[in-house]
Fold GntR family transcriptional regulator.
Amino acid sequence: MKFDDKIPIYYQIKNYLYHEMMTGALKPGDKLPAVRQLAVDLTVNVNTVQRALGEMITEGILESQRGKGNFVTMNEQRITRLKEQLVMEQLERVYEQLHALNLTDEQIITSLKQYIAQRGQRDDQRVSD
Amino acid sequence: MKFDDKIPIYYQIKNYLYHEMMTGALKPGDKLPAVRQLAVDLTVNVNTVQRALGEMITEGILESQRGKGNFVTMNEQRITRLKEQLVMEQLERVYEQLHALNLTDEQIITSLKQYIAQRGQRDDQRVSD
DNA sequence: CCTAGTGTTCTATTTAACTATTACACTATA
DNA sequence: TATAGTGTAATAGTTAAATAGAACACTAGG
């Protein structure tokens, strides 16, 4: 896995696992790969994986069972709330950044629409999906 | 100045200066505060400031004159391109992140609109501007 | 009971970022 | 020419993140 060296790896691992949960690749109750296996898959050290998982366990998103494995919480509300929170964080950040670049609310929305439209064109050229 | 400890300070300083240029607080040809003064203002070390400025000089956004100071480039096209690039980076990032959270193109635009609308309400309560 | 698979913890080491301090190079000006 | 203000560079020390390696604790199944 490729990492952005501007951001701590354990932090990027958390985001990776969040996304796996949001897209349904990891569902409530699912068992995660073993920490040693995750470390191999992500080409990082076990301790780095453990740090990421440790925080997610503290947050109540994951549940650890010693000797068995790490599991996604069965509490679906927690996952729903997490998704809302992650979306909100992204919106806040992009809004503040673009606002700081002196774009108006209108310009922010317009530029996003344009970006998506252009991206659509670009993707259409690759696959006529 | 407050920094996000997830991101290198020199990197955040670059962004800060970018924003100063985008909002017109720093115009083409303007002289920046002395590196030592910037270090005091931002409560960081001179070397950290220097690292940020050094990269911006390499990028051609700033021009350094030994003994005189650091200046914003007179080449306005470079600044225009920089702004376009910064906006595009933000759009790309938020799009990819929200897409990874399984939102459709439509949902991405809608959620941003909603966010801005809600934010507008919130701001209206504070100041009837 | 033994073993394989799992999570957990610890120590030591390396590396990048940041800091602290000092020195050097150049410019303007009194 | 002396001095103050500026950028530049080098050295040394600190800290957080990441790595490497080992040991410990628990579970399941033969």
Q: What stands out?
A: Chain A has two domains: 9-74, 83-126. The mean pLDDT of chain A is 92.
